[in-house]
Amino acid sequence: MNSKSVVAIILARGGSKGIPKKNLRLFGETPLVEWCLNAALKSQKIDKVILSSDSEEILDCGRKLECEIHKRSAEHSQDTTTSEESMLAVINEHPIAQSAEVLILVQPTSPFTKSEDFDKALELFENGNFDSLVTGVSDHSFSWEVDEEGNAIPQYDPKLRPRRQEMKSLRKENGAFYITKRKIWDEEQCRLGGKIGFYVMEPYQSIEIDSEFDWILLEQLINHNF
Description:
By secondary structure, this protein is α/β, with parallel strands linked by helices.
């Protein structure tokens, strides 16, 4: 892997239905978007960090921290716009993203992502020769699928209910960040493809801030040292 080819892209839209102006709201004493920005900027393995937004207020946070800036168009900032569509807009429009060999999609709704997480995940990505990588946590839940009629279908054999220690290999995606080779974006236009790796994070890092309850819950952890 070229040591100067790793670019992290933070997608931070100005609008938010669940929590108005969520990315600018102070989480602790810092705007939410700046938590992941600071972590990415402090990473030893990320070469450039791009903040992409349709909001000048959010972009000002990036200018203050001296990261790269991408002004996203209204077309790529709708409620229905997918993260893939937003990422591809940055990849196709920003010169630094255009030349990157490895791209990291970073979501600002996971404020407890640390710089060490990026570094360890990139090391795993490189050593495993993966094409893409997803982050998440160990999962010991018993999952069920419920159809339209309300019928519950277990995703395990109830007669052979596994013990917790027998569920070591199960993982749950947490949406913190995704690492993807440029060729996957070019060929599949998707954050995940090819040989996929998985980086395990801590349980408290599994909560994304999508509601006021999530916000209140995670704010209680700010002053704790993990």
